[in-house]
Design brief:
Structural class: alpha/beta
CATH topology of the largest domain: Nucleotidyltransferase, domain 5
Number of helices: 13
Largest sheet: 8 strands, mixed
Strand order of the largest sheet: 15-22-21-17-18-19-20-16
Strand content: 25-35%
Length: 470
């Protein structure tokens, strides 16, 4: 029998804020002689909000009161209550993630939005979500080469490289449609500090308070469009482009297909011709940037594919593609769920042999780095281990725990033996110590996870990778 989850995605971006409500359908994919396995087989959007301008108090602070009203209003319009939601994500993206009160806003929204909602921000995560929402990940499953999705918003461009349905590289740059804005009279009201070196290098003399010169804006948008040729390894990477990377550079992987999403992408794919400031309806140069990219793509015969979503790509990704489903051979103390923002400790690195004799030592050392905090330890484990091996494994795990630790013991393994491991740990540890053992989940050190309440004998898990604030 199929099971259903209600999911919410809320994206608070540099320019826009929006929400979607979706229904995820779970169904068993196992045969008669194999262990039952539930997978998400269908994702249906039930309601999507209008696209709002993200409310700000000033350049450095989000207007939480106005944002709260937007979220509550959209819940009311959707017909859902926060208590109805079982999974999903609230993400602050782009330049908005760098606002001084971003963390406080996320914490407050998490309480409003539901019991099991991710609170995460970061360009690498956004790149993955946008690539899923735009359809680049799905397209890559039946494509012989790599697929790159560029999600261009108001403040940043987030790039995800996909191969065979998986993200193999992510990166972000300070390239966006609202890095320069102007008022009703066409006078410049804002220029991002990140663009000033490039503006000076191009000798454009664009300054706040001056009239927005269309020809100068066009020179700037053409130069930014040219940077995508550098990211696609069609032209050499320049210092100007390197200076716009956020945190880290890309792997310079060539692609056989390219898609664009985000608000600027609307103007990459339409054929509208922009000839003056009057053709820029949002008082920024985003549409002009989209036109420059479109013309550049034609001139260089870039193999463009059309995304499933443009401006809604990230919020669709957040609402529909954040969730992972555990195996059915699991063990858990239900009263402790849900859990949010649990740091993941990876006991053994990818190329390191999993030595049982080092397990106790590694657990003791690595959990000590998170005093008085619930953590999740993860390792691959052997496929189909014998009972004696599981018992030895449980003894080493129990021995590595702090004697006074009352936090839930969370163990995540990749192979199907979490239930047997959990039952064995239950016989070793004090009866009041909560235990959660999950399998068929692949998490890495540095990730954070949210663990939801059980649904049809499985656990929904959200893995948050490369979360940061600057």
């Amino acid at each position: 029998m199929n099971q259903e989850l209600l999911s919410v995605g809320i994206d608070i971006g540099t320019t826009s804020t929006q929400a979607i409500f979706s229904k995820l359908t779970l169904a068993s994919q196992a045969g008669i002689a194999t262990i039952p396995e539930l997978k998400i087989v269908r994702k249906e959007i039930l309601y999507q909000s209008p696209v709002y301008f993200t409310p700000l108090l000033d350049r450095d602070h989000i207007n939480f009161s106005a944002l709260k009203n937007i979220v509550l209003s959209e819940y009311q319009k959707s017909g859902f209550k926060p208590s109805d939601i079982q999974t999903g994500a609230v993400i602050i993206t782009g330049e908005t993630s760098r606002k001084e009160n971003a963390d406080q806003v996320l914490d407050s929204l998490a309480g409003l939005a539901g019991d099991f909602v991710v609170t995460a921000a970061g360009p690498d995560l956004e790149s993955v979500l946008a690539g899923f929402g735009a359809g680049a990940a799905d397209f890559s499953k039946n494509f012989s080469g790599r697929v790159i999705n560029f999600d261009i918003g108001g403040g940043t461009t987030n790039a995800g490289v996909f191969f065979n349905g998986e993200a193999i590289d992510t990166y972000a740059l300070d390239i966006g449609g609202r890095l320069i804005t102007f008022d009703d009279n066409g006078n410049i009201t804002y220029i991002s500090n990140r663009l000033i070196p490039l503006i000076d290098q191009l000798q454009l003399s664009l300054k706040i308070g001056d009239p927005a010169s269309f020809s100068k804006l066009r020179q700037l948008s053409d130069r930014l469009a040219e940077m995508f040729l550098e990211l696609l390894a069609i032209k050499p990477l320049t210092h100007e482009t390197i200076n716009l990377f956020i945190l880290h550079q890309h792997q310079a992987l060539p692609a056989g297909a390219v898609s664009f999403s985000g608000g600027v992408a609307e103007y990459v794919y339409n054929q509208e011709t922009i000839t003056g400031i009057a053709d820029l309806p949002f008082h920024d140069f985003g549409p002009l940037l989209g036109q420059s990219i479109r013309e550049m793509a034609v001139a260089y015969s870039i193999p463009l594919i059309k995304p499933q979503e443009c401006i809604r790509a990230t919020v669709v990704g957040a609402g529909n593609h954040t969730i992972h489903i555990s195996g059915s051979t699991i063990f858990y103390s239900e009263e402790t769920l849900p859990l949010k923002n649990v740091p993941v400790i990876q006991l053994f690195q990818a190329n390191e042999p999993e030595r049982l004799d080092l397990l106790e030592q590694k657990i003791a050392f690595k959990t000590a780095l998170y005093p008085d905090q619930t953590v999740a330890i993860t390792f691959q484990g052997r496929q189909s281990p014998k009972y004696t091996e599981i018992k030895s494994l449980a003894n080493h795990i129990a021995a590595g725990q702090q004697k006074t630790d009352s936090h839930p013991l969370i163990v995540i393994v990749e192979h199907d033996f979490a239930k047997a491991l959990g039952q064995t740990l239950r016989n070793i540890l004090p009866s009041d110590r909560p235990i959660i053992c999950l399998d068929r989940i692949r998490a890495q050190g540095g990730d954070y996870i949210d663990i939801g309440k059980p649904v049809a004998g499985v656990i929904p898990v959200v893995i948050k990778t490369l979360i940061f604030n600057t």
